[in-house]
Amino acid sequence: MRRFCSILFIATVVLVGRAAEPQSLSTLPQATAAHFCQLLVRDNTGTVQSLNNFIRRSMFVTTDSLTAAQSFCTYIFNYGGWESLCIFPHATTNAITWHAAEDRLPADIDSEHQKYIHEVFPRLIAEIEAENWTVVDAYIDRMLKYQTTFASLKTPHTSHATPPSALLFLLFVFFLAFPLFCAIFFHLFGNLRKRPYICRRIEKQM
Questions:
Q1: 44: which residues sit within 8 A by CB, 6+ positions away?
Q2: pLDDT for 3
Q3: What kind and span of H or E run contains 152?
Q4: In whole angstroms, what is the distance from residue 69 CA to residue 93 CA?
Q5: CA angle 97, 83, 103 (to 5 degrees)
């Protein structure tokens, strides 16, 4: 069943892209294709996994000239399959949703991130077409960083309360210091009460 869903997902990615005019891009170098396939993707079953792991479970196999990652990238970039790859996470306090470059994005994704999601693949493809592999790898690094940054749930804002350990320490210091404060207070209060008596004795002696 999982294998069938994997094949269905790849077919969807490829066939959706065929509506656009196929491109004839250079094959990605092995290292660059493997680098791209480190990206996470949400497939048709809702499972989130790396593209490398997904490819291992799919119909893509190595050939004499191309690795499975290279074959996958060839389909993705030449037939517009990247348009339906759900590789862009968006986290809220309750869930993480994954979006593709051509999706209609939720309003709570800010304009800067929406622009990045919609524009990163066309720019990446332009660099692939120019065979600027160093720049391509840099784009992939930023995509991986994007996933790492936004693929975790947001924590609700909480006030900066004093931790229990700090409260216990303050109570401990208070109970240690309280007897000392009492002793100082009664000592000073006693001296103040004695002062009129001492003054009267001095006046009598004079």
A1: 5, 8, 9, 12
A2: 47
A3: none
A4: 34
A5: 45
Report helix, strand or coil for 19: coil
Cα–Cα distances in angstroms (integers) from residue 187 to residues 51, 171, 177, 190, 191, in the given order: 78, 24, 16, 5, 6
* Contact predicate 85/91, CB 8 Å: no
Q: How far apart are CA 114 and CA 118, in angstroms?
A: 6
CB 101 within 8 A of CB 117: yes
Distance, CA of 118 to CA of 21 (rounded, Å): 19
| Tokens standing for residue 4 | 């069938």
Q: What is the pLDDT of residue 44?
A: 87
Burial class (CB in 10 A: 0-12, 13-18, 19+), 124: buried
Give the per-residue pLDDT at 58. Answer: 76
Residues of the chain below pLDDT 50 = 1-9, 11-12, 14-20, 157-162, 197-199, 202-203
The C-alpha atoms of residue 36 and residue 40 are separated, in whole angstroms, by: 10
Contacts 24+ apart (CB under 8 A), 130-138: 131/26, 133/28, 133/29, 133/32, 136/28, 136/32, 137/32, 137/35
Of 94, 156, 160, 147, the residue nearest 120 (C-alpha):
147
In which element (H, E) is residue 116 found? helix 111-129
